[in-house]
Amino acid sequence: MATGETIVGSLFQVLFDKFISLGLDVLQRKGISTALLNKWKRMLVTLHTVLDDAKDKELSGNRLVKLWLDDVRDLAYDLEDLIDEFATEAAQAKSEVESSTSRDESSGSNPNSCALVYETKVQEINDRLEEIVTREACLSLRKNVVDRSNYTNKRLPSTSLPEPQFFGREKEEAEILELLTSEAENDSILSIVPIVGMGGIGKTALAQRLFDNAKVIRCFESRAWVCVSDVFDVLDITKNILQSITGLSCEGKDLNWVQVKLKDNLFGKKFLLVLGDVWNEKYGEWTAHLKPFEVGAKGSKIIVTTRNLSVVSITGASPYPLEVLSLDNCLSLLAYHALGATNFKSDPYLEIVGKKVAKKCKGLPLVVKILGGLLRNKWNPDEWEAILNNRMCDLLTGENGGVLPVLKLSYVHLPSYLKRCFAYCAVFPKDYEFERDELVLLWIAKGFLDGRKAKENILSLRRNHFDELVS
Question: pTM score > 0.85 for this model?
Answer without folding.
Answer: no
